[in-house]
């Protein structure tokens, strides 16, 4: 089945370019286009796309606020021109499943949509090092028993997520079905009050 995508960007020419790229992939279908954050939220709830490609700076409701409203309802992949920490961290805290810059080439964009649709997380390589440095320098803020609510299997899955493994890779490493892996990831996110596997990777103690 095709991956259904909603493209949200306030610039019509940019939307058209993104749509053209996505239409070139046999396994992706553009379900709709939104010109601002409020429209993106409303259309996402109406159309139920697999992935929302969300710009950050948009009128009426910005992309990060829109992502926060859609957290838990659909997977959001932020696609923006602005490589600034405020947007990177804001998007991930809001529950975005991925963060890419608009200078990403067409093949990478298409593959990013596939990655997010599979339930995996993705961050632009240009911001990954800053992200790791920022969170590695944070003081510990968790109680030691905070992970106790997870089952032993869920802890194993969380450790794999923290290593950046995809669902398919986790399934192979832990010798279980990929569908079972997705279930474990979903349950551990719910138990820990997290919105995405990217947040889970940041959460996991080193």
TrEMBL record:
The modification 4-aspartylphosphate is found at residue 55. The keyword DNA-binding applies. It comes from Nonomuraea longicatena. This is Response regulator transcription factor. Residues 4-117 form the Response regulatory domain. Residues 143-206 form the HTH luxR-type domain. SMART domains: HTH_LUXR, REC. Keywords: DNA-binding, Phosphoprotein, Transcription, Transcription regulation. InterPro entries: CheY-like_superfamily (IPR011006), NreC/VraR/RcsB-like_REC (IPR058245), Sig_transdc_resp-reg_C-effctor (IPR016032), Sig_transdc_resp-reg_receiver (IPR001789), Tscrpt_reg_LuxR_C (IPR000792), WalR-like (IPR039420). CDD domains: LuxR_C_like (cd06170), REC_NarL-like (cd17535).
């Amino acid at each position: 089945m095709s991956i259904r995508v909603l493209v949200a960007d306030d610039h019509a020419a940019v939307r058209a370019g993104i749509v053209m790229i996505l239409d070139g992939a046999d396994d992706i279908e553009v379900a709709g286009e939104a010109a601002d954050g409020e429209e993106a939220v409303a259309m996402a709830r109406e159309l139920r796309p697999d992935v929302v490609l969300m710009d950050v700076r948009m009128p009426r409701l910005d992309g990060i606020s829109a992502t926060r409203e859609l957290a838990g309802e659909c997977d959001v992949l932020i696609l923006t021109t602005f490589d600034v920490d405020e947007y990177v961290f804001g998007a991930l805290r809001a529950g975005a499943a991925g963060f890419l810059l608009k200078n990403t080439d067409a093949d990478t964009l298409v593959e990013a949509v596939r990655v997010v649709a599979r339930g995996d997380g993705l961050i632009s390589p240009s911001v990954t090092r800053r992200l790791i440095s920022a969170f590695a320098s944070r003081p510990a803020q968790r109680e030691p028993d905070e992970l106790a609510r997870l089952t032993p299997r869920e802890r194993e899955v969380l450790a794999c997520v923290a290593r950046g493994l995809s669902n398919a890779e986790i399934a192979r490493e832990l010798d279980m079905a990929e569908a079972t892996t997705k279930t474990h990831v979903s349950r551990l996110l719910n138990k820990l009050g997290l919105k995405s596997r990217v947040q889970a990777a940041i959460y996991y103690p080193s």
